[in-house]
Design a protein that fits this description.
The complex is a heterodimer of chains A (345) and B (276). By secondary structure, chain A is mostly helical. Helices cover 73% and strands 3% of the residues of chain A. Chain B has ten helices and twelve strands. Chain B has a single domain, classed as Rossmann fold, CATH 3.40.50.300. Chain B has 276 residues and is of the alpha/beta class. In chain B, α4 packs parallel to α6, α5 runs antiparallel to α6 and α6 packs parallel to α7. In chain B, a hairpin with a 2-residue loop joins β9 and β10. The chains are: A mainly alpha (345), B alpha/beta (276). Chains A and B meet through β1, β2, α9 and α10 of A and α3, β6, α4 and α5 of B.
């Protein structure tokens, strides 16, 4: 048997596509390399060797490296990676439960919900303390998701309805956000604008810590639910037929997805299209089984976001582009390509 | 048709009963499709539901498989109401293949078939030796081993349908329900799928209940034919005994002649149209 790697003992047994371990290792190495490069980039360039030495706490020729890397640049890179992971898993789950390859937290309006609340806060209450913003974004995502689910619910939640309602919600939140941006004070509007496009600019350890507990709880939960995602992906009737409690499992998965998106948006704004692209690319690499797809998509999402942040900082240096601009520049055509491909099926 | 008649028919086939409905009423959005239906499905036999479009045969199959909650009445699996059992326990005994299922893009045949093991797994035991064996078995019975690593969207309609049937087989249930398993297949593939189901019934004694569109195929493959019109069972029994010109008129509103199938001797329905 060479299609699956099987692990079995008396208590546990599981299988995973044979491509998964090697793909995870390669993606992990590439991500690590990008992070090292990224840590060396900036107003004060540091060579990759010295970055590595500093990370390993080895002696370097400049005592400032430690401060630059550990205090200024590492939290930013880690945050970029982790929000990418969050968006990617969230998108992979949404694509499974909606059975729609175009579903992603930004496509069905969950990011929109987060944005509208956060932008309103920035524009209407510019003096609000900084820590309120993430909480507001998270609440917005949750409200949008609940709204989508309730409106799409009619004696059972149909996947198509979920997408259509989601697109409607997104249009609505975008409209309100535009109104805020049009009538707000210019200073707060430009601040809001940077946040909307998604940026990890100036993120430090204090931004990273609140994100961690969410990921530590939600990622293992998502992995545990991958078997249920597999059967939900076959359609409601088939899933019920093999004994899945469809409605209950869909709610648990939806909440997991929203919480991952909420926590990520709250930390770095709406870094668009990562939740759409990462699961797709991962599926190309390891197939459709969620046991392997979720970890692969997670690393892919982290890699894309770290790379986008690196490109955003280097392409037009010293002008800095938010990483959300880079992901959208690549992601929007990718979305159109998927749309086009879907039409021809 | 009352339950005594239905049970008597089943008894005439000298069979145990696999599924029974008692005063079953099924409705979609308030419109009832099946009302107060009493029906017994014999165990170890092939039962085929026939009827005109919209008569409620697919609805009935969904009801039998607990995919649709009845408005009144219930379905009994052996002696227990199917809605009182846990859905996972039901899934270990009864499999359902809905009409025209769609697999996600890129899913391989083997991956699909493995999903049939879902009710036999839990968080810790996700891939036991038995799971693996059952999947290989299902692939081999359906002659899908060669195609096992192909993605479903690269297969022909007939191969794809065999893959879905393999998934239901991997579920390893005594009862297998199928909703129009031959739809969208050309004639050769229709016969291929029906032959496969026939073999499953003959060699493993599985109870098969299916909805078929083609009356003649139904007559040929059914041990027990159930004719449905306006949400009611009009006739139930061996095809040779119940297939009459009057029944075809009642169920399909069609004039016909019934002759003997020259190949197997079962009833063959020749429709009478305007162009004689």
């Amino acid at each position: 048997m060479n299609h699956w790697i099987t692990v079995r003992s008396r208590q546990i047994s599981f299988r995973i596509d044979r491509r998964v371990p090697i793909v995870l290792i390669v993606l992990g190495l590439i991500s690590f390399a990008i992070v090292i490069l990224s840590l060396g980039q900036g107003e004060y360039p540091i060579s990759p060797i010295n970055v590595l030495k500093t990370l390993l706490k080895l002696e370097t020729d400049n005592a400032d490296y430690d401060f630059i890397i550990y205090t200024l640049r590492l939290p930013r890179a880690l945050i970029a990676f982790l929000v990418g992971v969050g968006f990617a898993i969230s998108g992979a789950i949404l694509q499974g439960i909606t059975r729609n390859p175009l579903a992603a937290p930004d496509v069905i309006g969950i990011n929109g919900g987060a944005s509208v609340v956060a932008v309103s806060l920035i524009v209407l209450f510019p003096s609000a303390p900084g820590f309120v913003l993430p909480i507001a974004a998270f609440a917005g995502a949750l409200v949008a998701a609940i709204l989508i689910y309730l409106l799409a619910w009619n004696g059972g939640s149909s996947p198509i309805r979920l997408i259509l309602i989601g697109i409607g919600i997104m249009a609505l939140t975008n409209a309100v956000t535009s109104v805020m941006l049009t009538f707000g004070q210019i200073n707060s509007v430009s601040q809001a604008w940077i946040w909307i496009t998604g940026s990890v600019y100036g993120r430090s350890w204090e931004h990273l810590l609140p994100l961690l507990p969410w990921l530590i709880v939600l990622i293992p939960l998502a992995l545990l639910l991958s078997r249920d995602l597999n059967v939900l992906h076959l359609g409601d009737d088939v899933a019920r037929g093999v004994g899945s409690r469809v409605e209950w499992q869909r709610i648990v998965l939806l909440i997991t997805s929203v919480a991952l998106t909420g926590a990520s948006v709250a930390t770095a704004g709406t870094v668009g299209f990562v939740g759409l692209m990462a699961p797709h690319l991962a599926r190309q690499l390891v197939g459709a089984g969620y046991e392997g797809l979720l970890p692969t998509a997670a690393l892919m999402g982290g890699m894309i976001t770290v790379l986008a942040d690196l490109l955003g900082r280097t392409l037009f240096a010293p002008t800095e582009l938010p990483c959300g601009v880079i992901t959208a520049t690549i992601g929007a055509p990718y979305f159109l390509y998927l749309l086009y491909q879907n039409r021809h099926q | 048709m009352n339950v005594e008649n239905s049970l008597a028919t089943a008894a005439a086939l000298s069979q145990r009963i696999a599924l029974t409905t008692r005063k079953l009423t099924l409705a979609y959005d308030g419109t009832s499709i099946i009302s107060d239906l009493d029906l017994a499905i014999p165990a170890g036999k092939i039962t085929v539901l026939v009827g005109s479009n919209g008569c409620g045969k697919s609805t009935l199959l969904r009801g039998l498989a607990r995919l649709l909650k009845p408005r009144h009445g219930t379905v009994y699996l052996d002696s227990a109401s199917i809605f009182k059992l846990s859905t996972k326990d039901v899934a270990k005994r009864l499999g359902i293949l809905p009409q025209g299922p769609v697999a996600p893009e890129g899913l391989t045949v083997r991956e699909l078939v493995a999903q049939g093991r879902y009710p036999h797994q839990n968080w810790l035991q996700q891939w036991s030796k038995e799971d693996e064996w059952m999947v290989e078995q299902a692939l081999s019975i359906t002659d899908m081993i060669e195609l096992a690593d192909r993605s479903l969207d690269t297969l022909s309609g007939g191969q794809r349908q065999r893959a879905w049937i393999a998934m239901s087989l991997a579920q390893n249930t005594d009862i297998l329900l199928l909703d129009e398993p031959t739809t969208f297949l050309d004639l050769a593939h229709q016969i291929e799928v029906l032959d496969l189901l026939y073999d499953l019934n003959q060699t493993q004694g599985r109870t098969i209940v299916m909805v078929l569109h083609d009356l003649n195929q139904a007559c040929r493959y059914a041990d027990c034919l159930v004719a449905i019109a306006q949400g009611q069972v009009v006739a139930q029994g061996e095809p040779a005994q119940i297939m009459t010109e009057a029944l075809v008129r009642e169920v399909f509103g069609l004039e016909s002649r019934i002759i003997q199938d020259p190949v197997v001797g079962t009833p063959l329905c020749i429709p009478v149209g305007r162009r004689r």
